[in-house]
Design brief:
With 388 residues, this protein is α/β, with parallel strands linked by helices. The protein has a single domain, classed as Purple Acid Phosphatase, chain A, domain 2 (4-Layer Sandwich). 22% of the residues lie in helices and 28% in strands. It has nine helices and 18 strands. It has helices spanning 55-61, 78-81, 113-121, 137-150, 162-165, 205-217, 239-251, 355-360, 362-376; strands at 6-10, 40-51, 62-64, 67-68, 86-91, 125-127, 155-156, 167-173, 176-184, 222-228, 255-259, 267-271, 279-283, 288-290, 300-311, 317-331, 340-344, 384-385. Strands 2, 5, 6, 7, 14, 15, 16, 17 and 18 form a nine-stranded mixed beta sheet that branches. Helix 6 packs parallel to helix 7 (239-251). The longest helix is centred in the last third of the chain and has 15 residues, at 362-376. It is globular and about 55 Å long. The protein starts with 5 loop residues before the first strand and ends with a strand.
């Protein structure tokens, strides 16, 4: 997997603007010849949804005092995680350390070994803006960012200062500059430290517009907006979600990715406005990548793969296709394996899956495939599952 260099583009102090102005990106075609392979850079940006860590998860993963082994949770999904050039996901917990008890819902505090595993299995970028960002307060936000930084995992969504918040996260993906912006609808009513609104990015139309425009001014060729929003367990996007997606599109976002409902919602393509891509992509909710949630559909998720191509003569970038890997979460309920595990859900009778899954959980995998296929076909027929 290609490793990324993080570029911090420091923003000047600008007044917030409610209108969405053109970013003025130079994507106009300057050469009419048919490109050959030497002039094309092909790259893949992939994302998963909510990466949770309930108490049952870390208890099952515990191997010694304050030592946890989470890598086996992802053993069967690993090959797909190592294919993209940029892999991201939403870390829906905090890393406040062992000086306070590890905990799951409603105030998450997760062992550091969890994010060590995420780094080891191939994640390149972590989203930290969500309704649990402030579960362990200001110190928890700071420590979470410190641990991720020490692992070499860049983040977007929570910050250590106003200067840090005003820094646009731009990563280099095979020579293409990609800005990643992240916002959450709420922090569950847990107020941020007084005088420090910059700790967590909240969904704010003026802030989103300003960040997108500044991304362009700092050289971003693509802008990804990651929203943590919507109604939990609802399988269709709300008006609130649609409005914020439309706002990001009007302001020039190229890709819009969503999390929080904990179930899959449809995805779609859109016509770009003041953006690099003529055709952009939105995933309203990518579901859970891993969790211990027990509600129906919460064991189903996807890895979205957005395949792109840049013509180095014209500097034009286009989205060539989007595909997805359906996933299903086993929650350690069988004595054969007391561990939460993420499995690819490509076929119900998959001989590559462990025997206990084939024996006891074929129906669950089959339901996940059926539900995911139907959801992905709600708004478009153009998004296909991956092939082996």
């Amino acid at each position: 997997m290609v490793r990324l260099g993080l570029l911090l583009a420091i923003l000047p102090c600008l007044g917030m603007q409610l209108s969405c102005e053109s970013s003025g990106t130079a994507a106009a075609q300057t050469h009419d010849s048919i490109p050959n392979n030497d002039t094309l850079v092909q790259f893949t940006i992939s994302s998963v949804g909510d990466m949770m860590c309930h108490s049952t998860q870390f208890n099952y993963a515990k191997v010694a005092e304050d030592s946890f082994h989470f890598e086996p949770c992802f053993e069967y999904i690993l090959p797909w995680l190592q294919q993209p050039d940029l892999l991201m996901g939403n870390l829906e917990t905090t890393l406040a350390g062992d000086k306070q008890a590890y905990s799951g819902y409603p105030y998450f505090n997760t062992p550091d070994d969890y994010v060590v595993a995420l780094k080891n299995i191939g994640f390149d970028f972590i989203i930290t803006a969500n309704n649990h960002s402030n579960d362990t307060g200001e110190k928890g936000i700071y420590r979470t960012l410190k641990v991720l930084d020490e692992l070499g995992l860049p983040t977007s969504g929570t910050y250590t200062s106003q200067k840090d918040r005003d820094s646009i996260r731009i990563v280099d993906v095979k020579g293409i500059k990609v800005a990643i912006l992240a916002y959450t609808y709420s922090t569950n009513g847990n107020p941020l430290a007084e005088g420090k609104p910059w700790l967590v990015n909240l969904c704010d139309s003026a802030l989103i517009n300003s960040d997108i425009q500044q991304s362009r001014s700092k050289g971003a060729e693509l802008v990804v907006v990651f929203y943590h929003f919507g109604e939990e367990y609802q399988r269709l996007p709300s008006t609130y979600q649609k409005n914020f997606v439309d706002h990001a599109v009007q302001c020039g976002a190229d890709l819009v990715l969503g999390s929080h409902p904990h179930v899959l919602q449809p995805a779609a393509f859109f016509k770009g406005v003041n953006s690099t891509l003529d055709t952009g992509f939105v995933a309203y909710s990518m579901g859970n990548f891993i969790s211990n949630q027990q509600d129906e559909y919460t064991d189903e998720g996807v890895i979205f793969n957005m395949h792109l191509e840049k013509n180095t003569i014209t500097n034009k970038i286009r989205l060539t296709s989007v595909d997805y890997l359906p996933t299903w979460v086993y929650k350690g309920k069988n004595e054969a394996k007391k561990l939460h595990m993420v499995f690819p859900a490509l076929q119900a009778n998959d001989t590559l899956l462990p025997e206990f899954v084939q024996t006891y959980y074929t129906d669950e995998v089959e339901k996940a495939i059926k539900h995911t296929t139907a959801t992905m076909q709600t708004y478009t027929q153009e998004i296909k599952p991956v092939s082996r």
